[in-house]
């Protein structure tokens, strides 16, 4: 394990400025309207060159994060990195993710291009059909996850794994700088230099093992960083391959630390769980003692937002509840009057379309209809809905662009009169 003094003695200067600029443009695509992004963009040439220089000189330190508590789907502590830190994450990800995609198993679904939750749900449905030989034989499904996973990870083991991967599979001239950047990010302690965005009493009720503020410094990485997700995908890849190739579990899928396994033999799944517990214990990790699901396939399985049954998939009650909660919140805001509704029509449409887009991938037509029926009539003064119930649109004359054009037209008329 390197120290800062050892990094200081190594040769420096291989990361190219154009790589940092490319990372900036990729990062900007998703965060262009935030204050931090706008502040960085005002002088992005200088900031990108300074970031490149600090990495090449091995004196980069992640900037302070913003920490807050979210309540859904469960109470959780999230560290949101600064925009500069996001650029640093993209520098690594742009170079390493293509190599990781080729190395990881296909049934590792998180933080990978072309995959994600919906892909994972479809893959688990295909596994179920294959395991039952087209629904003709019995199949057992086991689902489990890890307890306080992100907060229990040993940083040194995590860094050693990702550094080994970069050293072996990446052959660019800036290999050492990428390894250094990963070391600086993973070994950082964001809880020592962060800004709380919500009152301290919001941490009440959060189990101590789920907060970095109770970390010993050796364990725990922040939820919310791209490098955290990327490193975790690789860290548990060894477990995926052990389950598939050595412990003879025929069907395995994983999204971060949510693991689903299928076999026609219940004993195979029990044996695999026991071997998993031993492997994890050697790395200071544990399976969640209260989150073990083992049922025949006919009972279905809940996995990353979908409830999978033979031949059909439903949206989970949790995701449906989030959709109705979001609509109820916008309905309460509509009580502020027609001016508020006009101003926020596009945001309301975006919220609705997000949930409608998710639900239409499942057997949820009636849910979509009930969701739209729950929208306050005030919103339908500015929104329109096609008969397919697939996507809402802002009525002509009510978009932000329309309002700007109306203001310009009014200003031109006033100017002409003068």
Explain this structure:
This protein is α+β, with helices and mostly antiparallel strands and 418 residues long. Helix content is 51%, strand content 14%. It has 18 helices and twelve strands. The strands form four sheets. Strands 5-6-3-7 form a four-stranded antiparallel β-sheet, with helices on both faces. A three-stranded mixed β-sheet has the order 2-1-4, with no helix packed on it. Strand 11 (383-384) and strand 12 (393-394) form a beta hairpin. Helix 13 packs antiparallel against helix 15. The radius of gyration is 25 Å and the shape is globular. The termini are far apart. 34% of the residues are buried. The mean pLDDT is 89.
């Amino acid at each position: 394990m390197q120290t800062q003094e050892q990094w200081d003695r190594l040769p420096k200067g291989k990361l190219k400025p154009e790589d940092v600029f490319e990372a900036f443009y990729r990062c900007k695509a998703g965060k262009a309207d935030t204050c931090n992004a706008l502040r960085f963009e005002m002088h992005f040439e200088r900031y990108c060159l300074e970031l490149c220089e600090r990495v090449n000189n091995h004196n980069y330190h992640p900037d302070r994060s913003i920490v807050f508590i979210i309540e859904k789907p469960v109470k959780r502590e999230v560290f949101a990195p600064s925009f500069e830190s996001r650029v640093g994450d993209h520098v690594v990800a742009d170079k390493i993710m293509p190599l990781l995609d080729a190395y990881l198993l296909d049934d590792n679904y998180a933080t990978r291009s072309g995959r994600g939750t919906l892909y994972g749900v479809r893959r688990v449905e295909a596994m179920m059909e294959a395991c039952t030989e087209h629904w003709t034989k019995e199949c057992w499904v086991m689902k489990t996850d890890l307890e306080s996973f992100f907060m229990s990870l040993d940083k040194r083991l995590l860094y050693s794994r990702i550094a080994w991967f970069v050293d072996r599979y990446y052959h660019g001239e800036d290999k050492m700088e990428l390894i250094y950047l990963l070391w600086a990010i993973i070994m950082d302690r964001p809880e020592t230099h962060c800004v709380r965005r919500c009152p301290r009493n919001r941490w009440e009720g959060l189990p101590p093992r789920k907060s970095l503020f109770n970390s010993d410094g050796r364990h725990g990485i922040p939820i919310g960083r791209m490098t955290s997700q990327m490193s975790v995908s690789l860290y548990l890849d060894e477990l995926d391959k052990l389950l598939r190739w050595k412990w003879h579990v025929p069907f395995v899928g994983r999204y971060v630390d949510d693991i689903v396994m299928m076999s026609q033999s219940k004993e195979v799944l029990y044996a695999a769980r026991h071997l998993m517990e031993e492997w994890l214990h050697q790395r200071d990790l544990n399976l969640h003692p209260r989150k073990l699901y083992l049922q025949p396939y006919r009972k279905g399985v809940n996995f990353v937002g979908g409830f999978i049954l033979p031949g059909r998939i439903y949206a989970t009650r949790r995701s449906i509840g989030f959709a109705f909660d979001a609509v109820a919140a916008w309905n309460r805001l509509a009580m502020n009057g027609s001016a508020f509704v006009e101003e926020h029509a596009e945001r309301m449409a975006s919220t609705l379309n997000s949930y409608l887009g998710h639900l239409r991938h499942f057997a949820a037509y009636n849910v979509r209809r009930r969701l739209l029926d729950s929208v306050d009539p005030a919103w339908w003064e500015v929104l329109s809905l096609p008969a397919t119930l697939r996507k809402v649109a802002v009525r002509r004359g009510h978009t932000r662009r329309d309002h700007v054009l109306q203001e310009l037209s009014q200003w031109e008329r006033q100017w002409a009169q003068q």
